Amino acid sequence: MGVSVEEFLAMLDRLPEVSKGEGGDWVSVKVRGKGFGYLWERTETVGLKATIEEQIALVAERPEVFEPQFTAGRFGWVVVHLAKIDADELFELVTEAWCLTAPKSLVEAHESR
Q: Transmembrane region positions (predicted)?
């Protein structure tokens, strides 16, 4: 159990048109210029876009793994502790965050593969 920073970054390469940018203490993760995640290497945590309902459910179910970050509109961002999550679950959450952010045509093209 647990995902390294390097493993998280490698996951991003499995999704189309993901870009990473340095933001000081964090790395921003975007698709076509729109953010869907952040990485804080120092704390080995990731912030991911989710629906508010999913944010609430994840935090309630496993507060040792997830914590609320903030809400914006209909989205609730969640902090994920990399050492406490398995790779398959994290990739599912990363993919969901990407799908919430990427243009519909890009999501459909990716899902059809």
A: none
Q: Is 109 left (phi over 0), alpha (psi -120 to 50) or beta?
A: alpha
Average pLDDT, the chain: 96
CA distance 61 to 71: 18
Helix (H) or strand (E) holding 108: helix 104-111
Cα–Cα separations (whole angstroms), residue 95 to 23, 25, 42, 64, 90 = 22, 23, 23, 22, 9
CA atoms within 13 A on the CB side of 64: 4
Model pLDDT for residues 39-72, shown as the tens digit of each residue: 999 999 999 999 999 999 999 999 999 999 999 9
| Contact (CB, 8 A) for 47 and 69 | yes
> Would the pTM of this model clear 0.85, i.e. be above it?
yes
* Residue-range domains of the chain with CATH: 5-106 (3.90.1150.30)
Calpha distance 41→37 (Å, rounded):
13
